Amino acid sequence: MPPIYIGQVKVDPPILQAPMAGYTNYAYRQMVREFGGAGLQATEMVNASGFAWLHEHEAEHPDRLWGVKEEARPLAVQMWDNDPATLAKVGERLANELHVSVVDINFGCPVKDVTEKAHSGSYLLKFPDRIAQIVERVVKACAPTPVTAKIRLGCSRDAINAIEIAKVVESAGAAALTVHGRTAADFFRGTADWNRIAEIKPHLKKIPLIGNGDLDSPEKVIEAFRRYGVDGVMIARASMGRPWLFRQAAAALRGEPVPPDPTAEEQRLTMLRHYELTCARFGEQKGTLLMRKFACNYATGRPGARTFRAMVANVFTREDFFNVVERYFPREEPHDVDIPPHVYK
């Protein structure tokens, strides 16, 4: 597959790492970067109002922007809010002060704290005119840094309006559109509807369409390009404990043999490096607590994973963490198991 361009930003290969709240911090991004294969990485999504307050009070940038100034490019930062002026102000700072490669606006988050309380994320899919105002203001504020948008199919199955929103986003000047193949009401239940994503492509005149949802293998990435005609793909939850998935998908796109999963020992060492990076930023106590969920993801699908998850969920210190990893992290190679449907989305 050829690279895609988001404005002047070359994304090669056209495989993007999704922004995921609570997960895609610098430590995670570094693990993905060391394996390779992601053409564009993204931070966790940033609350624009919170970011603006911190900036005005000369406070430290939020942890969600940990590492952004120094790390390799290209790199995207996703933000959310419902006020065009606030989003424009924060977008300008991201572009001109942090020099990020891409500023992304979230119109897809289905979490109630974002939708019902803040009237942001996927809530805004009900209001195409508001989305147009937001995108137009942010594009103008960030120029020449490209601005993108991420959406869902609609608020619910009986209110799918992704084609309308896609047209609005492009007309307002966005440089790319990512579509998750579920509605907000679906949350992460069921399966992503890639046929609905494909229906959007003919309605975009010049910007790339990036598909997202249920991409948990190189084979599914290939299918997304061949069957559904997207220009790029975005991998999300399936990579939380498998940062090597991007490398595998990129090899498949090049027509090369897909590298095997790392051995159990290599995966253990990868997880421990992830732990060290996290603790270097947050200290032993907070870093250990944060790594509980990542450690659980690294064990998913392996014999003994349930026992390991139960044990690592109760660690509080570095010594506890290493003892549990040494005793309980699955040593055997993976075999065919039934993976809970909520895991790989």
From TrEMBL:
Keywords: Flavoprotein, FMN, NADP, Nucleotide-binding, Oxidoreductase, RNA-binding, tRNA processing, tRNA-binding. Its EC number is 1.3.1.-. FMN binds at P19, M20, A21, Q78, K150, H180, A236, R237. SUPFAM superfamilies: FMN-linked oxidoreductases. The keyword Cytoplasm does not apply. Pfam families: Dus. It is an enzyme of class 1 (oxidoreductase). It catalyses: a 5,6-dihydrouridine in tRNA + NADP(+) = a uridine in tRNA + NADPH + H(+); a 5,6-dihydrouridine in tRNA + NAD(+) = a uridine in tRNA + NADH + H(+). One of its GO terms (molecular function) is flavin adenine dinucleotide binding. InterPro entries: Aldolase_TIM, DUS-like_FMN-bd, DUS_fam, DusB-like, tRNA-dHydroUridine_Synthase_C, tRNA_hU_synthase_CS. The keyword tRNA processing applies. The active site is at C109. Its cofactor is FMN. Residues 17-326 form the DUS-like FMN-binding domain. Catalyzes the synthesis of 5,6-dihydrouridine (D), a modified base found in the D-loop of most tRNAs, via the reduction of the C5-C6 double bond in target uridines. Belongs to the dus family. This is tRNA-dihydrouridine synthase. It comes from Pirellula staleyi (strain ATCC 27377 / DSM 6068 / ICPB 4128).
